[in-house]
Design a protein that fits this description.
This protein is of the alpha/beta class. It is built from eight helices and eleven strands. The strands form two sheets. It has a six-stranded parallel β-sheet, sandwiched between helices. A five-stranded antiparallel β-sheet has the order 7-8-11-9-10. Helix 4 links the parallel strand 4 and strand 5. Helix 1 packs across helix 6. The chain is elongated and about 55 Å long. The N and C termini lie close together (about 10 Å).
């Protein structure tokens, strides 16, 4: 089953996130008040809707409650962001993300229930898409055009086994750089003989083309 996401606002970040999520196989609904942008994204999204995100009725009619993720990508429009986040939470969206244009805006968005605030200085749409599209990927960093560094949770079939037993480098084309436990919350060199648990996080280097195998 693919992830469904609504991207509200098609600025630079919103466009990048929506297109990246769509290319990763997600069901993507894009919403903006600019009909030209909506027309442009009709072929790069599952559903494209022209709506006024400052109008309560328009936002309610979007049916955000059917989405797994809602992202308000309007860092300069606090009114529309607050309204969209509030309605998304009221309609039962499990994970709501919001782009913020300032620390004060981030603080306000947290107060109205947003689950994660995007820092536009340190985040881009492609990076967000890599993280949001997988339950296993906790963080993502580009290395170059071919490689990336990713923080991941171990797959269920890896649990209770060590890296030496799994031979992840050979079987999955993944190089484990470091690991940490939620108990210590500190990165350390990967111990090939330490059994992996649900509290283990792995920092790995891998080819971008193999990211689709990390779910």
């Amino acid at each position: 089953m693919s992830i469904s996401i609504a991207v509200l606002g098609l600025g630079k970040y919103g466009r990048s996130l929506a297109e990246s999520m769509y290319n990763l196989g997600a069901d993507v609904m894009v919403v903006d008040c600019n009909q030209n942008l909506i027309d442009d994204f009709a072929a790069k999204s599952t559903v494209a809707v022209c709506a006024n995100l400052e109008d309560e009725d328009d936002v309610k009619e979007l049916g955000l409650g059917n989405m797994d993720i809602v992202c308000t990508a309007m860092g300069s429009n606090l009114t529309a962001s607050i309204l969209s986040v509030s309605i998304a939470k009221e309609q039962g969206v499990p994970f709501v993300v919001a782009k913020s244009g300032s620390k004060r805006m981030a603080s306000i968005l947290h107060k109205v229930g947003v689950d994660k605030v995007i820092d536009p200085e340190n985040e881009n749409g492609q990076r967000s898409a890599r993280i949001l599209s997988s339950a296993s990927v906790l963080d993502y960093f580009d290395v170059d055009g071919n490689l990336c560094m990713v923080e991941i949770k171990p797959k269920k079939k890896w649990l209770s086994k060590s890296l030496a037993e799994l031979d992840i480098r050979k079987e999955n084309n993944i190089n484990v750089v470091a690991m940490k436990s939620n108990k210590s919350n500190k990165w350390d060199f990967a111990d090939p003989h330490c059994p992996l648990t649900e509290s283990t996080n792995l920092l790995v280097v891998m080819q971008k083309k193999d990211l689709k195998d990390i779910k």
